[in-house]
Amino acid sequence: MADEELLVPNDTYLKAGIHIGTKFKTKFMEEFIYKTRPDGLSVLNVQKIDDRIKTMANLLAQYEPEQILVVSRRENGWLPVKMFGKLTGAKVFAGRYPPGIMTNSMLKNFIEPKIIVVTDAWPDRNAVLDAIKMGIPVIALCDTNNQANNIDLVVPCNNKGKKSLGLLFYIVTKEFLKLKGMIKSDSEFKSTIEDFTPE
Fold first, then answer.
1. CATH of the domain at 22
2. I need a surface site. Which of 36, 106, 119, 152 has the fewest CB within 10 A?
3. Which domain holds residue 15?
4. In 127-157, which positions are buried (b, 16+ CB within 10 angstroms) versus exposed (e)?
5. Would you say 98 and 69 are in contact if contact means Cβ atoms under 8 Å apart?
């Protein structure tokens, strides 16, 4: 796999463990699985991960930052999604998603995003259900054990690991800013992968 075709070198993906799945796999995720290791862990195809990250960045870039909502119930996703929000201007919920904020206009914190991203469709299911009610697209980071019903764009990855989530949001942030014309090249992006990765 030639590095120049990937958003980051293959090595960077492998070091972050973005391709390491779980021992469980669903039929939804079979097309993204490269192989199953002797220890039973499924391994995701790095090329397919990279392709979907590109698609995710391109899709998000069609919206204004304030129209995007990113939700992460899982703690390892809190820092990466907050960094994405800080650098792009997107709305972020790190921690418990407040039910009804997309569906009940009477709430003080009511918002009307045009697209949402969840770091894991299962813990973030309330946000996914709200998005379905509102008819807005859902991008979900999905591990080998995820169901993918009600998801408009599945981004296969290890959605549990700190390094994996940090790397993914680092790449998406950089690509989004480039596509929006907020930076011209990679060299203008001053944040590092470490900035996105929880201790």
1. 3.40.50.10490
2. 106
3. 11-179
4. bbebbeeeebebbbbbbbbbebeebebbbbb
5. no
86: in domain: yes
What stretch of H or E contains 153? strand 153-156
What are residue 57's phi and psi, to 5 degrees? Answer: -65, -45
User: For every one of its 199 residues, what pLDDT tens digit does the chain have, with 9 covering 90 and above?
Assistant: 556 689 999 999 999 999 999 999 999 999 999 999 999 999 999 999 999 999 999 999 999 999 999 999 999 999 999 999 999 999 999 999 988 899 999 999 899 999 999 999 999 999 999 999 999 999 999 999 999 888 999 999 999 999 999 999 999 999 999 999 999 999 999 999 999 998 8
Rounded distance between C-alpha atoms, residue 18 and residue 45, angstroms? 10
Give the phi and the psi of residue 190 in degrees, each rounded to 5: -90, -15
**Count of domains forming the chain:** 1
pTM of the model: 0.95
